Amino acid sequence: MNWRDTLALFGGKPKERPAAELMADALDAAEHSDYETALAIWGPLAHQGVARAQNNIGMCFADGLGVERDTALALKWLTLAAEGGDPLGQRNLAEVYFKGEGVEANAVRAAELYRAAAEQGDGPAQDMLSWMLFENQMIPGEIAEAKQWAEAAAAQGVVASMTRLGMIYHNAIGVERDPAEAARWWDKAAARGDVDSQAMLGAAYQLGAGVPRDPIAALMWLLRAQAGGSKLADSFIPPTSASMSDADIERAQKLSQMPLVEPAS
After folding, report:
1. How far apart are CA 139 and CA 132, in angstroms?
2. What is the pTM of this model?
3. Which of these, 93, 135, 197, 235, could form a disulfide with 78 (CB 3.0-4.6 Å)?
């Protein structure tokens, strides 16, 4: 019996096992790309009202995992998951409205859903809500709230929010300008691989803004950023290397190629 045949039997009783165990089995199957098995488990649970299962089915239809991609069915299941209070369902449905996939794009509705997920502690939703408020183009907002949500997301390791906080302090957006605080946030994000933060941190070391002036550290971060595709690094590399010895440039190049060591906290 294939997954669609199983789907037709959703009205039947699921196995007499706790939903959490079944969801764990389905997740294991999905992680091994066995979406037929995963969907066969999620299906009955979704019809029982398990919001996370509804979200997972919705994402399978959204991405064409184990089924043909179907934006209408993705919207249906993600809506059920969001209405059921699942933060992933709320965040994923928000993305549907933000991008206008199978539905008319609606930034206000997307923000409402991101906020619902953010208030439940979902880090990526907190980051996206922060960005929308920070941009102040799609939805009205205050920089204080954008900063608040960025801090919440950053506390969960979301590097985009760390980078945004660095820019907030660097550009004195709603706060007193604080080069040291900006560099602190860029350092956190840079160590986690964010190339724009690496570029900004390199520039800070080159200028001695918020950190001691250190040409080797500056060039090391700028080269990492450039290799990762950040255009922000390009204009800082020539003036940084111009005053350095060949030995120091070589040292910075070698350091830029070493594995990143993510901070413990």
Report:
1. 7
2. 0.87
3. 93
Instruction: Measure the CA angle with vertex 52, ends 66 and 113; round to 5°.
Output: 105
Query: What would the two tokens of residue 200 be?
Result: 């900004």
The C-alpha atoms of residue 38 and residue 61 are separated, in whole angstroms, by 13
Residue 151 in tokens: 């801090």
* In the block, residue with structure tokens 């794009």: 105
* CATH, domain range 1-118: 1.25.40.10
Q: CA 254 to CA 265: how far, in whole Å?
A: 26
Distance CA 181, CA 165 (A): 9
Per-domain boundaries in the chain: 1-118, 187-265
CA atoms within 13 A of residue 197's CA, in its CB half-sphere? 24
105-155 pLDDT tens trace: 999 999 999 999 999 999 999 999 999 999 876 777 789 999 999 999 999
Could you tell me the CA-to-CA distances from 165 to 81, 86, 131, 158, 176 in Å, in that order? 31, 28, 11, 11, 13
Q: Which residue has the tokens 């413990």?
A: 264
Helix (H) or strand (E) holding 180: helix 179-191
How far is the C-alpha of 214 from the C-alpha of 204, rounded, in Å?
Answer: 9
DSSP 232: G
CA–CA dist 127, 259 (Å, integer): 26
DSSP code, position 231: G
Tell me which residue of 3, 92, 16 sits closest to 48, measured CA to CA: 16
